[in-house]
Specification:
The complex is a heterodimer of chains A (514) and B (346). Chain A is of the alpha/beta class and 514 residues long. Helix content of chain A is 31%, strand content 25%. The chains are: A alpha/beta (514), B mainly alpha (346). Bound molecules: adenosine-5'-diphosphate and magnesium ion (MG).
């Protein structure tokens, strides 16, 4: 097969921090394939692609497009060489329409100056239709979903006649449904002769989508494979550098007393008839993991807020370890025995402007208060150093939390919440956006928490995670429980997915009566 | 990994660079605005140090700025805005004078302590009211503190010009307080007095409260990220109210020490911008009590320099105000500070 792109011996050291991020990287991509570029967070994937797209200049190395050597010094030259890139963070103008965003920079004109909106919409519509996208050219960006915005970005590159399309972690912001649609579209695109490079660290997606793959680790290429020739565990071994247990090993734990109980909980927004949480009742027992799955927007984040003591309910009751804590604040929830790892790590789970020490001691800080009202700083230091060690956090107590990687911030939160467990731990989207090594670590911790005898609730939109970890599963749709079942070996992810999408709601309730 | 000490050196250098830039602006604007720029620059920069009287008075004017700088810092640290500094300073001075005038003849120390205490408590309650309203009804403390302060200023003006005016002198002011309640002068012939020591103690106390105690920890966390604080079980309503108490108390003390130490009576409108300038001081100091002292010094110096240039050279009051305004603009813009900080951190 013909080679579409060849990058040879690319080296890049960021001068501001002296970090070498690409070391003699070679990347060969064949025409008409979907090529996955893999690696853990910080492996240098984005840097390599930014070099290809002309945003960053390499220290050395060569780039060949269709066998011809090219010098790419800006995205504009990249466009001219037929390269288009969709960034991890979209670069769209909210107040412009789809068509206006797509043509921006190469607008069709009446005469010399006047922007020709009709032609823009017509041209863009033809690109949209030709490639099977579902977009209105005259819709405003601010009215679109994240998935649609991504489509706009892709259409924008196709309008620029890109033959090689780079997608940087396109799935991290999408729902399961949107991911499927994206993959279908990408497969169609390569059939028409385009070439795709996709960055990701989700192995399932790699297997599902790509033809070949290149793995980066610490800036170096550690493997190039045909996707068909490798299995997931080998890919993850290449990425992480050691064998990882992708499926956490379940342990049987004796089920003990009830730790959490919801009774007919209803949550309504003011002046809104339809409840956001509709008559929820369930129990969680010590020694089991309850997984709660739903597609975003179906009450999952409200349920998280509720269990964390962050929101007041309209009616119903909530008990933690037998204590009625309905509509009390987080302080009472915690005293009743709650530990809670929130989904929003940066806004709720940590104070990124504060030091790691100040993040770790929260909820425990009362222990260090002396009679004078002072915080015993040496005790607090010792405490946080101990947790930093125990949880392998790459930081000092005085490091500003915002400078840590996502995985390390999550570990800071875990260390604080798991330091003292009193019967109930709620994990919300525990591995969202994290790489394999961090996810593995977190799964291990969750299993550990359960085997030590606590009740665990996992709230997640990731079905796989729910199925791999939970003993029991609840699926919510539109704020209602549509399925409650024991997690047995033969459970079908697709069926759970149907419940999540609201395609099934026959309420095959398998209760855990005790 | 950067440790916190490294971080605060960076912060300090950021402040110094800002101040240096401000000095450059002063010099450039003097060259533009004055016909005799060299003598103006001389009087601007050297004037405040010309003799004991000028030097002592400049240092004395630092004291209320330290108090208001601390007051505003407390509020800012908790992400609260206290725009009522001016009224709180005025009220503090007025109440301190009233207490000193009303109490019978007590030993000096006790009388001074009493009048400072009452002033601080009243200031705390005045600002605390805005915090309380916010906690209860989520009103905007920025607006309520400003409105309350304005109403107070007019009320106090009424008392000073009416019922409490001292007919024996032609100032619009209350009677003079008894001499045993005067704060001891320490640098005659200037007005510099022992309130400077009280101010230093207040700085140490504030630093201790904010960075060493549990109260300060919770206050700062609530200010940096209130959702995180709430999630961790901190009662964030408390940290809407309490920082305003601190803020009002320190602002009121600024007025109280001016009256007991400098004017010895409450003169109409004596606060004269000290409340507002506290905001500038807190901004330069990045709400760090330790940095409030140099920031207040700087501010007092600019003020004294402008006055000296006005008296001795061809600078008019408008030009002096323009220069001050430009400096204020510069230091509040944060641009220089931040760009410096970014460079130092990466
Ligand atoms: N603009 C930059 N300046 C300095 N260092 C950077 C910059 N961008 C990325 N890095 C560093 O380079 C490494 C690789 O980053 P990146 O290419 O974004 O990795 P990936 O996309 O594989 O997660 C990281 O350690 C990151 O901190
Ligand atoms: Mg990246």
């Amino acid at each position: 097969m013909q080679t579409c792109l060849e990058m040879r011996n690319i080296c890049k050291t960021y001068s501001i921090n002296g970090r070498t991020v690409n070391k003699n990287v070679d990347l060969t991509v064949r025409k008409g394939e979907i090529h996955a570029l893999l690696g853990e967070n910080g492996a240098g994937k984005t840097t390599l692609m930014n070099i290809l797209y002309g945003i960053i200049h390499p220290d050395s190395g060569e780039i060949f497009i269709n066998g011809k050597k090219v010098f790419i010094d800006s995205p504009l030259t990249a466009n001219r060489s037929g390269i288009g890139m969709v960034h991890q963070h979209f670069r769209l103008i909210d107040d412009f329409t789809v068509a206006q965003n797509v043509v921006l920079g190469m607008e069709p004109r009446h005469g010399l100056f006047k922007f020709d909106n009709t032609k823009a919409e017509k041209d863009v519509l033809s690109v949209i239709n030709k490639n099977g996208f579902k977009l209105e050219p005259n819709a405003k960006i601010s009215d679109l979903s994240v998935g649609q915005m991504q489509q706009v970005e892709i259409v924008k590159m196709l309008y620029r006649k890109a033959d090689l399309l780079i997608l940087d972690e396109p799935t991290s912001v999408l729902t399961e449904h949107e991911i499927q649609n994206l993959f279908i579209r990408l497969k169609k695109l390569v059939k028409t002769g385009k070439t795709v490079i996709i960055i990701t660290h989700k192995l399932k997606e790699v297997k599902r989508l790509s033809d070949r793959l290149t793995v980066l680790r610490s800036g170096k290429v550690v493997g190039v494979r045909n996707t068909a020739d490798v299995d997931e565990s080998e890919i993850s071994r290449l990425m992480v550098g050691r064998t990882v247990a992708l499926k956490p090993i379940k342990v049987e734990t004796e089920i003990k007393e009830e730790a959490l109980k919801l009774e007919n909980v209803v949550l309504k927004k003011r002046r809104q008839e339809r409840p956001i949480l509709d008559n929820l009742s369930f129990k969680v027992f010590k020694g089991e993991i309850l997984g709660i799955a739903a597609v975003a927007g179906n009450g999952l984040s409200e349920l998280e807020n509720l269990l964390g003591g962050m929101v007041r309910i309209t009616s119903g009751r909530l008990l933690i370890n037998g204590q009625d804590v309905t509509n009390e604040g987080a302080a009472v929830f915690r005293r009743a025995g709650l530990s809670y790892v929130p989904s929003d790590r940066l806004k709720r789970g940590s104070s990124i402007e504060s030091s790691v020490r100040e993040n770790i001691i929260l909820t425990n800080h009362h222990r260090f208060v002396k009679k004078t009202g002072e915080i015993d700083s040496s005790a607090a230091d010792e405490f946080s150093s101990k947790l930093i060690d125990n949880f392998n956090i790459d930081a000092d107590p005085s490091t500003r939390t915002g400078t840590l990687s996502g995985g390390n911030i999550q570990k800071v939160i875990l260390s604080r919440e798991l330091e003292h467990i009193d019967g109930l731990v709620v994990f919300a989207e525990p591995t969202w956006g994290l790489d394999i090594a961090s996810s593995e670590y977190i799964y291990k911790k969750i299993i550990e928490v359960k085997s030590e005898g606590a009740a665990v609730v996992i709230i997640s939109s990731n079905i796989e995670e729910i199925i791999n970890l939970s003993d029991r599963i609840i699926v919510m749709h539109s704020g209602e429980i549509v399925c409650e079942t024991k997690n047995t070996e033969d459970i079908d992810a697709a069926v759970i997915g149907d419940y999540m999408l609201g395609l099934k709601n026959d309420f095959s309730k398998v209760t855990n009566e005790r | 990994m950067k440790d916190s000490r490294n971080c605060s050196t960076v912060q300090l250098s950021g402040v110094l660079v800002t101040l240096a830039a401000a000095a450059v602006v002063v010099i450039v604007s003097i060259f533009i605005l004055s016909k005799t720029p060299f003598s103006t620059i001389y009087y601007f920069f050297i004037g405040p140090f010309a003799n004991k009287y000028y030097l002592g008075n400049m240092l004395n004017s630092v004291v209320p700025l330290i108090f208001t700088g601390l007051g505003i810092s407390f509020a800012f640290k908790a992400s609260m805005f206290n725009l009522g500094g001016e009224g709180q300073v005025y009220a503090g001075g007025f109440i301190a004078a009233s207490v000193a005038l009303l109490i019978p003849s007590l030993p000096g120390v006790i009388g001074i302590f009493l009048s400072l205490l009452v002033a601080a408590v009243c200031g705390a309650l005045i600002a605390g009211l805005s915090g309380f309203f916010k906690m209860k009804w989520n009103t905007d403390e920025l607006i309520t503190s400003f409105l309350i302060s304005n109403a107070l200023i007019y009320t106090i003006d009424f008392f000073i010009t009416g019922p409490m005016d001292d007919p024996t002198n032609n100032l619009l002011a209350t009677r003079k307080i008894a001499s045993q309640y005067h704060l001891l002068r320490i640098f005659p012939p200037s007005s510099l007095n022992i309130s400077v020591i009280i101010a230093i103690l207040a700085v140490i106390f504030s630093f201790w409260i904010l960075f060493k105690t549990n109260h300060g920890y919770e206050l700062r966390l609530s200010g940096l990220n209130s959702e995180f604080a709430r999630y961790g079980g901190i009662n964030i309503g408390k940290y809407i109210f309490l920082p305003m108490l601190w803020s009002g108390a320190f602002n009121a003390l600024a007025g109280a020490v001016s009256v007991l130490g400098t004017t010895h009576c409450c003169i109409k409108g004596f606060s004269n911008g000290v409340g507002w300038n506290g905001i500038a001081v807190a901004l330069i100091a990045r709400n760090n009590p330790a940095a409030v002292v140099p920031a207040a010094l700087f501010f007092a110096f600019i003020e004294a320099g402008a006055n000296s240039a006005m008296i001795n050279a061809d600078v008019t009051i408008e030009i002096a105000s323009i220069v001050k305004a430009v400096i204020f603009f510069l230091i509040t813009s944060r641009v220089i500070y931040n760009s410096f900080r970014r460079k130092a951190l990466v």
